[in-house]
Request: fold
Amino acid sequence: MATTNEFTAPQLITKQPGEKRKVSMDFSNWVNTGTTLSGPTIASELVGGGASDLAISSIVISGKKVVCFIDAGTNAKNYEVKFTVTTSDGETLQGTGMLRVINK
Reply:
């Protein structure tokens, strides 16, 4: 069974350039019981600005988490990964995680 790496500020998740990793952002502490999430999107950019070369795929909601796969990236670069969802309460929530790509 694959392990899901979960972003929790200020945690920094690392991956190698050739790895495809399953990651998630947990919104459970941000929403009321019974609130549902919809419309997940994920964007990334290089820390300090610049276009991201991360490949983000298979974005789904699992309970109060947004889950995806992250692939590619450039060795020795840091990325901000921003997760956005809409709640059944009418809110738009964003959570940002940090990802470092590095050969181990």
In short: The first strand starts at residue 5 and ends at 7.
